[in-house]
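Let's practice the habit of predicting before peeking. Look at the sequence and jot down your guess about where helices and strands might fall. Then scroll down.
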Amino acid sequence: MLEVRPEFDAQVSVSVCIPTYDRPRELLKALNSCFSQTYQNFEIVIFDNSEDDSTHKLIESLAKKNIRYFKNPKNVGPIENLKLAVDHANGKYIKVLMDDDILYPAAIEKMVVALESNSNAGVVMAPMEIIDDQDNRINYRAYLIKNLPLIYRYQKRSQIIPKKKILHDFLTSQYPCCVPSGIMYRKECFEVLGSLDLDMKFAVDVEICARFATRYDFFYIDEPLSAWRYSKLSHTVINLHQKGQDTEIYYALTKKLITNPQVAAIFSVAEYEVVKKNAYFFSSKRAVISIIAGIRSGNFALIFQTLKIMRINDPYRSNLILLPFNLAKEVLLAGLSWIR
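Done guessing? Here is the structure:
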C-alpha cells in the first residue's frame, strides 16, 4: 500500500475520511470544501481505489500537510475502502466525506460544537441538500414519485435525540441519517462498538448508525451542512433505484439489531415484541425498493425474486397482508409532497 504521510498533529480533533475511486475532478471539489471550513483543526484521510495515478498526482500538487493519502494495491471495493479510511482516523471525531459530495463552510465547526456540548451523543447529523453534476441545487424525485428538496430532514428543531427514539425509528419507520457525508461520529464509540460491518454490504452506513443508537444519543442540527451529489452514474442511483439491491440485507440488518441484547435492554418486554414485528414490516417495505427497480427496468425476474425473499424472511404473515395498504398510504403522502 502506497502511503503519503506528511507531518500532522497526532491530537487532531477531526479526521475527514474520504474514500475515492477514479474521480479526481469531484474529489478536488470535495477537498476544496474542506479547505474552506471555518474550523481548521482537522486531518484528511484519503484511501484511493483508483486504477491510475491521477488522484495521487492531484494530492501531490496540493502539497497540504494535513492530508494523509493511501493508495490501495488493488481495488478493494467502495465499502472496504470506506472502512479503511475510518479505521485509520486519528481524530477525536470522524467526519466521513464521500468523494463526490461537499461540505458547507461551517459544517465541521457546528458538528464539533454539538458533540462537545453533548457528551452523551455519539453522532451528530444534519440534512443534506442535493446537487447535480454541475453543482446546481436540485430537488430529488425518490422512488419515482416523492419530491425531496432535502434528504434526511428528521424534524424541524435542532436538539438531542434520545437513543431509544432514534433506535426505534431506525428499526421501524425511517433512517434518520444514512449518507456519511451528513454525519459526524465520536471516534471512541467505534472503539466501544467496533468498526463498520462489511457483511452489511450496501447497508453498512445504516447499520453503523443504528448500532451507535443502541448505546448513544444523537444530536440533530436542523440545517443543511453538506450536499449529496445526484448523478446517474452513482452507485446508489444505479443499484438501489434501477438494478435493485440485495434485498436479504434488509432482513439481515433487522435480525442483527433485534437480536442485540442492547436493543432488548432499551425496550420493555411488551415494547420489544411490538418493535420486533414492526422492524420486519419495515424491512419488507424497504424490500419494495427492488420491486420498484424491477418495474423501472422491466426486470420481472427481479420482481418475483424480491417477492420470494419477502415471503421467506418476514416471519409475520400479517405484515405482508398489510403491506399493500401501507404502501398505498405512502404513495398518497409522496404525491402530496409536491404541493407542500
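How did you do? The radius of gyration is 20 Å.
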